Amino acid sequence: MTAVRRGLVSRLTRRTWVRANGNGLSVRRLLIAVVAAASLGGLIDAAAVAPAKAQSFTYNPLPPRAKPPKAPNDNQMLVQATEVDYDYNNSRVSAVGNVQLFYNGTSVEADRVIYDQKTKRLRAEGNIRMTDADGKITYAEILDLSDDYRDGFVDSLRVDTADQTRMAASRADRSSGNYTVFENGVYTACAPCKDDPKKPPLWQVKGARIIHDQQEKMLYFETAQIEFFGVPLAYMPYFSTPDPTVKRKSGFLMPGYISGTDRTGYGVEVPYYWAIAPDMDATITPRFLSRQGALLQGEFRQRLIDGAYQIRAYGIYQLDPGAFAGLPGDREFRGAIDTKGQFALNDKWVWGWDGVLMSDYYFFSDYRLYQYRDPLGSFLLLPTEALSQLYLTGVGNRSFFDARTMYWLSYSGNQSQVPIVYPVIDYSNVLNYPVFGGEFSYKTNFVNLSRDEAVFDPITTLANTNSLCTTASADPLARMPSQCLLRGFPGTYTRLTAEAQWRKSFTDPFGQIWTPFASLRADAIRSSVSNQPGVSNYLPVGDTEAFRLMPTVGLEYRYPFINVQPWGSTTLEPIAQIIIRPNETYAGRLPNEDAQSLVFDASNLFSVDKFSGYDRVEGGGRANVGVQSTTQFDRGGAVKVLFGQSYHLFGLNSFTVQDAINTGLNSGLDKPRSDYVASANYSPNSTYTFSVRSRMDEQTWNVQRFEAEGRANFNRWSVSVLYGNYAEQPELGYLTRREGILTTGSLKVATNWVVSGSARWDLETNKINQYVLGAGYVDDCFVLAANYVTSYSYSAGTAPPTLSHAFMFQIGLRTLANSSTTSGSTGLQ
């Protein structure tokens, strides 16, 4: 461009393409300066602090916002205006009238844009609108900025971000290329009122001045206040926070109030976060307690190229140890360390650890640390021990390997009754090529464990009331199989198991599916059982070596019948399975550590071995028969029903053998013809799901086990109900029938009002022993809710749980903070 071209362009819009080279440098600088100015709007994210972890109520989902099309970064710019002037005498470039600038996905609109090459300043005026590639929109009336983005100002700034937050300021000034000051700034995450956009939003934060230090990456708020519906409710003369570009920064975190107990006193926590380096940090949290003094907590975390680990330490010199008189906590110093880590050796192998060490087993419970920090969490998953382990795991396409050593630290104080596993190793593999035309797989398991003291559980009322299952009882009935179960034996136990399996399916011309299968399992076992009181009533004491071999052959038959209708199709499939194998050797005469749980239902009806672990193996001939029906609807939805029964054909029925813990007794399999099992699942659409599982006595059809579950989820309401009914199992210690209902639900009674609740009802005692009632106001930017909770509080040791009541209050401002407070019978938690 070698001449000045001026004049009005009538009817046509001036369109100028400019490449990022020497030609058209003035226009390029003009646009780059405008694009830089757009980043002033980006600083409004300063108020958008990362949201806190979701509480019981969450915000309404934001309406979807179309993503702007991705613009090519070709460094081409388009200048479009009614008039473009090139004034070389004054070294100015001006674009006037409906100015539009486009560059690498960023667009700028204004009434007038002027770039002065002498002063290297850009000035835009009138109806300025800047849209970046992420969808953020910045509005202003006047913009004046140096082209190196070091100094300038913007008047009447307003910004709408892609996450639907908004900020406005009467003026924004930038100086020294580092400081930006927003005058009379206002921030909110609430959408403007549709009927009256000028009406104040539900909440907004105002600040007389908001200062951004770009070098320190900090934001400083002066004379700030939070308003609700335009009414100031909270005032803060000064506070600071890292800017949105900072992922981690050293500083104090939100303090917390600790209700404590009568023994510890109430207190307060003041956490300090230390960002040591990009790959490591630490959090130091002193807790100051009114009765016991300062409890110091520290956490160190580091992420490496191939994994991460963390270490947490706790310690306190108690001011009043006598508050724990007669308990393990009656000592001056108490503390603990817990750690965990995991590292990848490659894309298939990982190794890691978990570790816990405590001065006494009541420490976490007394001070509500680790697993006891959340009282409701400890109710849902009762912590009975802390696990320390070292493991190595590998996963292939059709193979799996896992090796680990495990040590449990008992919270009950009965450490001598907890086993130490060193190690347990599992490996399984399915060959990628056929063997004799079928699928061949194999698996192995090795375990070695030890326990110092026997563990007995009572199974009768007499044993429970007279303490017949303790090692100190001298009653003639003490520790007898008729009164107690030997839950864990004292001594050492080593077992190596290897099993190979083969199966192949054939389909004949009639559509019948025949699947022959065969397996061979071998167990090498060595046990050394200590001769403690009562143990000899269950297991042979002393050293025992055993080799157990279980060959199995069988055939599975299926004959699916398919009926196709205009509304869908139904598949009716009779299933029969016959298994031939010898008796279980050493049945009931060897320790059983990993096969103590047995639930017979439709899910394991056609399992070749129905025991849950390797320490027991099913023997004897058996036939499993059933019929399965599957219906698929063309408009969506499906129904699946299974009904069947198992038959003991010959040999020793393993489920009738009374071992140390009576595994198999009262299971429904401990008779020639098993109980009937059935299941039904119905999913008409994505809204509803129903399922039923049951086991009925094979003679009387009395219900031995029944579970029914239903779920529904709509836009305005959701509900789930689980009903369970379980017959007594006296051989296992369940002397009465158990029956109950667990239900949860929520209802949106109005656009922004939600009520929710859940309850657990013990039908046998006709008592609701846990429930939650809640109500709250919820919209896209604000949550205000309250819950009333009754639950059981657990502590370490053998003390029974106690029923507690609590009120939980929650308030949340989207992008700023969520906070909740719980008050109960023992104060705030």
UniProtKB/TrEMBL annotation:
<dbReference type="InterPro" id="IPR050218">
    <property type="entry name" value="LptD"/>
</dbReference>
<comment type="function">
    <text>Involved in the assembly of lipopolysaccharide (LPS) at the surface of the outer membrane.</text>
</comment>
<dbReference type="InterPro" id="IPR020889">
    <property type="entry name" value="LipoPS_assembly_LptD"/>
</dbReference>
<keyword id="KW-0732">Signal</keyword>
<protein>
    <recommendedName>
        <fullName>LPS-assembly protein LptD</fullName>
    </recommendedName>
</protein>
<dbReference type="InterPro" id="IPR007543">
    <property type="entry name" value="LptD_C"/>
</dbReference>
<dbReference type="Pfam" id="PF04453">
    <property type="entry name" value="LptD"/>
</dbReference>
<keyword id="KW-0472">Membrane</keyword>
<comment type="subunit">
    <text>Component of the lipopolysaccharide transport and assembly complex.</text>
</comment>
<comment type="similarity">
    <text>Belongs to the LptD family.</text>
</comment>
<feature type="domain" description="LptD C-terminal">
    <location>
        <begin position="333"/>
        <end position="753"/>
    </location>
</feature>
<keyword id="KW-0998">Cell outer membrane</keyword>
